[in-house]
Here is the input.
Amino acid sequence: MSDTHSGPFPQRWLFDPGPYAAQIDAYRSHLFSLDYRPWTVRGYEHAARHFCRWLHMSDGHLAEVGETDVDRFRGHDCRCAGPRRRASARPRYLYRVQWFLRFLAGCGVIDVAWERKPEQAPEIASWLDWLRRHKGLAVSTLDGYERSLGKLLPLIGTDPALYDAANLRSAFLDRCSSEGSSTREATALRSWLRYNAALGRCPTTLAAVLPPVKQPRRDNVPRGLKPADVNRLLASCDTATALGRRDLAVLLLVARLGLRAGDVRTLTLDQIDWRRGTLRIAGKARREAELPLPQEVGDAILAWLEDGRPPVDDQHVFIRMRPPWWPLATSRSVGQTVARGLDRAGLEDTPSRGAHLLRHSVARGLIEEGATLETIATLLRHRRIKTTSIYAKADPGRLREIAQPWPGDAS
Here is the structure.
């Protein structure tokens, strides 16, 4: 496709990419190969052309592009020959430029160093690797731990041999008072201290000096939807459309099996055993569990796979509804599916609007049906019965199952 192609942007609106016309042509072909719509392709191409034009006018070279060039482009005083006259690039426009650079990096045209994360200190990398291997933490969890610890290290230092109880406690309390308390920061710091204590770099008692972080909660009783409201939510899916079939399959996995949003997002075809009617789930800390696949849930998944799911070579069960045909990006996508369903069903003033609402609903339904806490713990894959016991608060009669006898003789 040449520069004289017709489309939403008139020829006079197109930036001249200078010596990089071949890269623009390859990028355009790549976007069309991902099944992007023509208008979307033009928008991405427009930003790429603008960046190439600016780079050429600035006497830069595409093969030497670095992160500073992206920042300079963001705020450059635009004198490029084209339609754009803003003082700085908007975030969405800049995202399109970064997408173009990722494509060039994948083709080997530019070095990928412009997008690399800052190099981790060796001791931090070793700690994260230890958490991954021995605790089975997911990549997203490790990233959160790294960010949380990074906020505290400037206050406590990086040498565990110099830590003492007074300084650790003081630094942590100062952080909480200035930025607000964070259970994740406390967890990350305790993990860092235990790791270094295990290696003999600091005393083993230091992790105990941090004060507990209490998050204010209005109600510590998990509340879910009533069974009738859950059925109303499921009935709101329009199974005449591909999106409706996907939504129903997602909602049923959460509403009937109590799966977490991450379990649904990462579910792959090889985790489903159709012959035995089971589902293999790798949950937190890589703990695998085999759950029964109810007929209703299996039928919904089959309907999505046979008439809705794009025919792509990817093992993930759930794929985006718009090109490029990739798996769901984050677990938030599952929560958004729940929120859309609540709006369609007209369910307002719900305790929450995410995937965990339906997970709580599973426990609520089982409690009302008379299921034991052990049964609920098995389905929800809780490691400790103490975690499941919070649901007994919704049914005071169930508290007898976990009540401990009073020590000594009753008076």
